Amino acid sequence: MSPYMDHHDPAISDRVPALISFFDVNNICRYANGFHRNWYGREPQSQIGRSVGELLGQDVAAKQPEHISRLSLGEQVTFLAEILHADGTPHSASVRYVPQIHNGKMTGFYAFVFDMDDQQYMFESMFGASAIGYWELDFRGVKKSLEAIALSGWHDPIQHLYDNPAFMRQAVDNVPVLNMNQKARQLFGVEESDMKGLMLGRFVPAGTETVVAANLVAYLKGETNFENETVLRRLDGEPVEVLLTASFPKKDGFCNTLTLGTVDTSYRNAQDRRLSRLEAELAHSSRVSTLGQLAASIAHEVNQPLGAVMTNGNAALRWLNRGAPDLDEAKEALKRVIAEAERAAQIIDRTRSMARKGEPKRVECHLDDLLADVEKLVHREISRLGCELLVERLPVDTCITADPIQIQQVLINLIVNAAQAMRDQSGRRIIRLICSASARGLILQVRDNGPGFDTANSDGLFDPFYTTKGDGMGIGLSVARTIVEAHGGSISARLDETRGSIFEFTLPTYTRV
Questions:
Q1: Residues 383, 348 within the same domain
Q2: pTM, rounded to two decimals
Q3: Span 174-184, mean pLDDT?
């Protein structure tokens, strides 16, 4: 081991894929790593005693006085050179000298030699085999144009690009295409014979120069990369949708050669457009379905007030057809007809607002008043079905913020459903409307002592058009859930521990007066 390298670990340097040598102040080699065997075909030990000219070539040796002068000042020196390989061919190499300083004096220097041909081969292998369409573009013309702009008094080239859009058209038309990998040629319909004299402008349609300008602006701003989608055209003029990418190397001065990546997005964009059409068709189908549900909901919900209108209308006729017409009773019956008709109109309006996803018309209302209206509205129907309704109110009057018509509809649906479920059973038929309070807010329960429901299908109880009744439409519970959830609450159903069903819903806030 040379005394100049007694601190060096060959176990490390021999693994580096580069020539590492140490030369004394007389330019004589005192150490050579194992890579010399790969490069020169000679054992590293045989390199000891050879000069810089013998190892690196006479062109390098001719510049040694200049290099030694800089090394003696403690500088590192980097340069390119052609260095003969073992097969007798010159390889492009990057050479770096690093001085060794001892007590303020240079005692020699390290020489690191990297084979640029290998790196070029690796680059070309990746460039050629990539699934991305790569272009090498000569940007020296753009550089000269920008320098001319600066000489004419424009000190801000970026502003010039914005102020002079025609500049980019001229620049694009005069950017030579140096190389295109196989993928790029395939994508843009370019043969090897087409490459001579090929300009970027052939592929950039009018109106898309702004994307190329944005790429150049990104470079001038010092950004590390650029990405944008645009439409280029094939050599035959057909449009190609692409993702345009560029990575800008960190170096001083303007980059003479720029590498662009192009990824074909035509298929993806076509699929996106197809998906958008399908989504639009689905949305249309959903609207049609919603209209169907809306019509069914209105028919279901107005059935009760319309039935009341008929009942009260017939009652009014009977009072009037008496031998001595009872006008007072007839007036009361007609007032009920008007009230029920108004109620039907309100139900239609509320149901339409739900279909429009509108906000419920919430107002402050007294729970006791709301329950009293429900009792009156369901009295005739549940009496006809042989049921009785028991209402268990809160101990104090409660004021809630809700849409009273919609909450009444929920309660009416649940109560009438319970009465209809018990119409064929014997014995006392009881429906309980129970009000309670908890941390969740106000809880309203409708309990019955009927036959209950099939728990295997309980998950579908609140789905549109699900029904267990032969003459049912399967809309009432679906509408009830929509109303409750629009108020910020939840609704559920379960079997009673003894007999019957429990339908329960919550309203999230309540205040006591």
A1: no
A2: 0.37
A3: 86
